[in-house]
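Chapter summary example: a protein plus nicotinamide-adenine-dinucleotide.
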Amino acid sequence: MERFGMTIGGEPRPGRTTFTTVDPYTGEPWAEVAEATEQDVADAVNAARAAFDGEWGAMPGRERARLLRRLGELISEAGDDLALCETRDNGKLLREMSGQLQALPAYYDYYAGLADKIEGRVVDTGRPDFFGYVSRAPVGVVAAILPWNSPLLLLTFKLAPALAAGCTVVAKPSEQAPVSILRLAELFERAGFPPGVFNTVSGASRQVGEWLVANPDVDRVSFTGSEVTGAAVASAAAQHLAPSTLELGGKSANIVFPDADLEAAANGLIAGIFAAAGQTCIAGSRALIHEEVYDEVVARVASRAATITMGDPKAPETEMGPICFPGQLDKIRGFVESARSDGATIRAGGGDRGMGGLFFEPTIITDVTNEAAVCQDEIFGPVLSVLRFKDEGEAVALANSSRYGLAAGIWTADVRRVFRMTKRLQVGTVWVNAYRTLNYAMPFGGVKNSGFGRENGTEGLGEYLEDKAVWIETTGNTRDPFVLG
Ligand code: NAD
């Protein structure tokens, strides 16, 4: 078995004890990973603080930009290796993880481009005797807590803007898929970063994340994961009044109107829910289909679902790999079985196609209402629930009748409808005649229980900066000390 350790203050920290991660395809443990102690977590935060107060904190934006670009180059060189680590940890397709890795250097380049353009503004104070300006400063030490489904991509959404802003970071990868993030930390020294700018702490239990979030020297928490954990993390951070960015789950609606290109729409429904075996926060897990085209669209999606190739996530022909871990598979099965016993129709899939292991077929559920658990709760698996609607108003009402608000897709040829719908949908991202595209320059995040704050774009940089108002008295006069003014 291969062994992977943490990096704290630029030094490898193998951990006093270790835990193992299992390859979901083979079912075999493949990596032995360091288990952090409470002291390791404290050391990581202290190292991040020392770097922030030291060389890194004093470094001009142009220099930070150079290091970010260099890091992007090193990630590119190590891309194949890092992608394979992710596939072995989480079972997602190697070609999906490789695609994500190839995209990462552009995120570091984009934020490198912003690192030396962090500018404040001069403000008209309304007072001729005062000159006022606003400057922007890095928030300080950031705790980044990650899920297992796309470890390095989701870390990059946090790390690239945080570093561009001048912050330092302690990352806590998921216990299911920690390896690629631990490996990334090894590149920092080679890229020329001072020690302590990026630190990692790993562990099999929730405790490591809890220790990190509770540390009073953490200035901001940036969390990606489930709704319930997100609420716990935000409230733990609030105990020492650290703000949080939360990227949580979703139950996104993919909405098909009768004037849409139905072949493209069916393909978009497949991409929305069966890519990554549905283990993605932006999964289009509710299909809302207009009654005029309902039968045709469901038939198209069901016939394609039946031909999706399941198998080794490393094989180029595979379209769906296994589910990440047994608990997740049990959860998916539980949702499908309870829908079946409540009278829903399992229009496609519902089992493992006789493959065993952690496989679960692409599954389509019809004859349900929007109130059913399979339409309200995030399953995080390859399960599409289909609802029928009569008109635009009903489509909007169904889409918005969800406690989540991460994303939505609209399939239509009517440009006026696009404007009406995008305005009314309560979500952070809307795709029109497309689904599941992301880019470093486009802000990403949710409303309602899908979280708060934004990643990517200039908005993502703003999460790691604090505004400071400066008033400079210009006349030398004294004034009434008992009057605000
Ligand atoms: P999770 O909430 O179980 O765990 C996320 C991370 O939090 C892990 O590293 C875990 O160890 C840590 N953690 C758990 N309890 C903690 C605590 N009390 N304090 C601090 N840290 C703690 O999520 P998961 O199962 O790893 O990931 C799947 C979830 O992530 C899904 O709900 C999915 O929708 C969501 N997700 C959201 C986005 C997004 O950008 N909106 C992206 C990907 C995944």
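Key point: Residues 5 and 14 are 4 Å apart (CA to CA).
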